[in-house]
TrEMBL record:
It is found in: Cytoplasm. PANTHER family: MOLYBDENUM COFACTOR GUANYLYLTRANSFERASE. Its cofactor is Mg(2+). Keywords: Cytoplasm, GTP-binding, Magnesium, Metal-binding, Molybdenum cofactor biosynthesis, Nucleotide-binding, Nucleotidyltransferase, Transferase. It comes from Marininema mesophilum. This is Probable molybdenum cofactor guanylyltransferase. Pfam families: NTP_transf_3 (PF12804). Belongs to the MobA family.
Length: 201
């Protein structure tokens, strides 16, 4: 497995969720004494230029990366993707949720290279039929349609949006076993997910 390369992309870290099912801010959950937001930034260091999309309450930890707020409040991750793309500098961006403890820079690089090669609007991993749009690459040309959907206030789901753009789904990474692919996309929604990570990391 080769080392990830620095590619022309932003990294949009979504930290604007309310963490209702977890009951606490997922960005602050610790693994080996390291808050999740720091862990993800460390794992993806060198893959792109990071931007944090935060909720109005802000972040309780010091961050040295740009931080932006959703233009459309309480509109879910689609609004976070919009905010990150709107403030990004590059044509493409890797979106990552703040509750993914095993994010892979190699997978991020693979998604990015696939977008460049296939010239798609979005490249989304899919495992056993489940899509993972919150560790995926998006092109900035989707911004006008994204703004239109959010402004209209109709279907604000990421899944619904992906059906309206040129989306490519990938289900494997060359040289990886299926479990490695799934492991890199694991996310924590509930306390039991967090406990599983602590005991099985």
């Amino acid at each position: 497995m080769t080392e990830p390369q620095v590619l022309p992309q932003d990294i949009i870290m979504l930290m604007g969720g309310r963490s209702r099912r977890m009951g606490r801010d997922k960005a602050l959950l610790e693994l080996d004494g390291e808050p999740m937001v720091y862990r993800i930034l460390r794992l993806l260091n060198g893959v792109g230029r990071p931007i944090a999309v935060c909720n109005p309450e802000g972040v309780l930890l010091p961050l040295t990366i740009p931080m932006v707020m959703d233009h459309w409040q309480d509109c879910g991750p689609l609004a976070g993707i919009h905010a990150g793309l709107a403030h990004g500098r590059e044509e493409m961006a890797l979106v990552v949720a703040c509750d993914m403890p095993f994010v892979s820079p190699v997978l991020g690089e693979t998604l990015m290279k696939t977008m460049i090669k296939e010239k798609k609007d979005a490249v989304i991993p899919r495992v056993a039929g489940k899509e993972h749009p919150l560790f995926a690459v998006y092109h900035r040309r989707i911004l006008p349609l994204l703004e239109s959907m959010l402004a209209e206030g109709k279907d604000r789901s990421v899944t619904g949006f992906l059906q309206q753009i040129d989306t490519l789904y990938i289900e494997e990474v060359q040289g990886w076993a299926p479990w490695q692919f799934a492991h890199s996309l694991f996310n924590m929604n509930k306390p039991e997910d967090y406990m599983k990570v602590i005991h099985q990391k």
